[in-house]
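Intended use. Records like the one below are meant for learning the mapping from a protein sequence to its folded structure. Do not use them to infer anything beyond what is encoded.
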Amino acid sequence: MSELFDAVDALLASRAALPPPAERKRLRAAHGLTIDEVATALQVRRATVSGWESGKTEPRPPERDAYARLLDKLAELYPATQADTATPAPAPDPVVPATFTAAPAPAEARTLSTREASEAAVMTATENTQTPAPAPVAAAPAAATRPARTTRTSSTSRRPGAKKAAPANTPAGGADPRFENGPLAVVDVEDGKVLAYCTGGLVLDVPAKSIPALVDWTLREAKLGAPKLSGPGKDADPLIVLTEAALERYGLPVTLTEEEKLAGRIPEGHKVIKQLARAEWKLTKRGFGPWARIYRPATGSERACVQLCIPSWNALDTRHWGTAGQLPPAELARVLGVYASRVMTPRGSTAVTGLELMTALHPPTRASEPDADGKRHSEHNPGSLGKDAIDPMNWPPCEVPDGHPVLKDMPRFHMRGPAEKLFEEAYDWARPMTDAECTLRHLVGIDVNMAFAAGANGLPVGLGEATHVTNPVFDPKLPGSWLVDLSHVDLSRVKVGKEWVELDGNLLPSPFTPKGERPEGPAWYATPTVAYAQELGYEVRPIEAWVRYDNGRYLDGWYNRLRDAYLATMADLGVDADLAPADFLAAMHGYKARDPELAIVVSAVKATVKGGLGKLRERPRGENWRPGEPWRALARPTWRPDIRAAVISRTRINLHRKIVKHAAFTGQYPIAILSDCVVYASNGPSPLDFLPYREGKPLPGGFKLGINPGLVKWEGTQDVLWGEEVREKFNAPELNLARYIKDGTVTDVDNGE
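Structure written out for the chain above:
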């Protein structure tokens, strides 16, 4: 009889009730579980769990019973609401109460044929015209929605007259027919078939049986790529992302050895590289690594370049891309596709892409007007940095890092001070709390949104080489580096606007040094720093300067594109730019949980800003470099440490200006500052407990809550007692609490790194 019972139990398990695919994903996300964790617990592949959540496949015994049990338990913990039929519930937040919910992107539907998808799109359009749906809190734009999956072979093999479906109002490539399938594809292998997952839910069959054939197919049939961002620029090359299964299919290692990781590439003798050579394809100098570029020399305007991205080789750095490298193909295509449509097709790391975006918006050359014979020629594009790098020996010594060729005659162990070297860096400053501050209950951190992007907005920077000037008259509109003594600026009495105000200068950081120390004599500063000394009401008399008469607002377009990408993605996550302060704080509560994939895009956009600016002063990276010798980055027109210094200078000054206005109006002073995060003591846990709002309006020129670059958001809150205990524990009265305000965890003595 027991055998009969076992048979009945097995029969019941084979039909264990399961919620719909979208609900399965919601329940997993609500508990903070990753696909990998579920796959490990059920002893199946991550692709199997992904298939269950997308509706592509259904679990079978014995895994089905265990999976059903997991979902039943999660459903008890996170019961579905009406809103949950379309969105995962946001994660809890202990400080700011959540009163905000946002409409999510719809879950992926089952695989549709081209005809089914077309009919579904028509039906949806018809229904929308007859019965308007209520507007959600934040409507996601086309590029951000999760569409139904549409499968076809390739653009050359579909039946005559067939039209590509337009699932979920999500066009894959936009108006340009050359790139109708979008900027990129994630290539994977399922059930022995090679598939290319494109943006917009489109899936193409890939006939290529080798990497050379894949490159050829991409250029000839896939219709992938993106139009240029500027008139004189170039179209973006198609990007192919290879999953682990695709790597195995095409004879590439799934992971790199330690030696290959250090080299950043696979060996030149690898069989795939030999296949490319036989097919007359070339690799760039960085070889076949996580971001490989495969090309043939261009003939006329014909495109002949494909970029590969290999996540399992750490192409998508987890610091900036989070779990993107572990996403299923369709979801990874969505993440990278949104980033590509709003920023640009990735060209490497976020730092590399940030730098490439500058060039894409300001190409170095353009076509000239026709000459006497009617021919056009390549000429310098005004407003760009040109096609030639500045000669390393023409750099002002004050602007370059140690080891630069222009410093080769300097004594080996000489340490340059402020009078020899431009020290324009972000803040890392803290001070002990006063007795009055210790009587308050909370330490509240606020963080400036996209601070360095805001610092770049409208900033004049040099476009060419610098000119040396002695005893110059300071010009706040002229980009350059100035040797000037600002030690006489007294923060206890400064101009705020047109009025002189009295402040407690001992509680303020100096605006002229990253550590907030008052300068002791002449030092090199970028133009925004010297201009701020004048703004505070003090005279400046430079001793000498390196100025750039050829200048312009080179970074304006770069800022605008990254700002728009950031704001559009945050709006998709339910955080709009025009929210009232309390509504903004509520909207920011748990925003990442509303759509974790779009949250990855936000992280990548922010990393593109910081990384791109950092690349302007890239240091040697191995290359058997020795001090005094040039390194590879110096050969780029975009190696411009002066531009980086100017942006950081302006960002630091913008923050100090707000701090001074806040102190003059409220009598409150910062406890600590780390880059773009400022910590204040407060009686309440919210920024609204100490920021001076009157009838919903902020202090003019002070801190304002909001999502726009330059405005601030809540970073974290801790008890004042926590701050004192941490400083006592590490015997560090000036421990920078801004570094730990987010979650309160301090793992070691603060060393400033």
